Amino acid sequence: MYHDQGLAAFKALAFEDGVNYTAGLPIVRTSPDHGTAFDIAGKNEANPQSMRSAIYLAIDIFNTRKFLKEIAANPLQVQESAPHRKRGDRQHEIE
Fold it and tell me: Element (H or E) spanning 22, and its range?
C-alpha cells in the first residue's frame, strides 16, 4: 500500500482528531493531519481539534520520553559479592 492510499482511509476515519507523528527524531514532531486548509484560511471556519490533538500528543510523547530516560538513568548497581572462601578457612571463621 502506498502512503497516500493509507492516509486517505485514515483521514476519512479520524479527520478532526488525526495527528501526523514523525518517529525516530531526537525532537518531538507532530502536526495536524488535515493539512494546511488554505481554502478556508482566514474565514473562521477551521476546526482547531486536530491542532489540539497534535499538541496533546506531543506533550504525551515528551513526558513519556522523559520518564523512560529517568528510569533508565540509574539502574540498580550490582554489588560484587565477597570472595569465595573455602570451607574451613580460618579467616572466614574469625569474621
Answer: none
CB 31 within 8 A of CB 19: yes
Q: Which long-range contacts (CB under 8 A, 24 or more apart) does 55-62 make?
A: 55/30, 57/19, 57/21, 57/30, 58/28, 58/29, 58/30, 61/21, 61/28, 61/30, 62/28
Residue with cell 565477597: 82
Strand ranges in the chain using DSSP code E only, listed in sequence order:
19-21, 30-32
Q: What is the pTM of this model?
A: 0.65
Q: How does residue 55 score in pLDDT terms, banded at 50, 70 and 90?
A: very high
**Residue 45 has what DSSP assignment?**
-
- Which residues partner with 21 through β-bridges? 30
Task: Work out the end-to-end distance of the chain between its first and last CA atoms, rounded to an integer number of angstroms.
Answer: 71
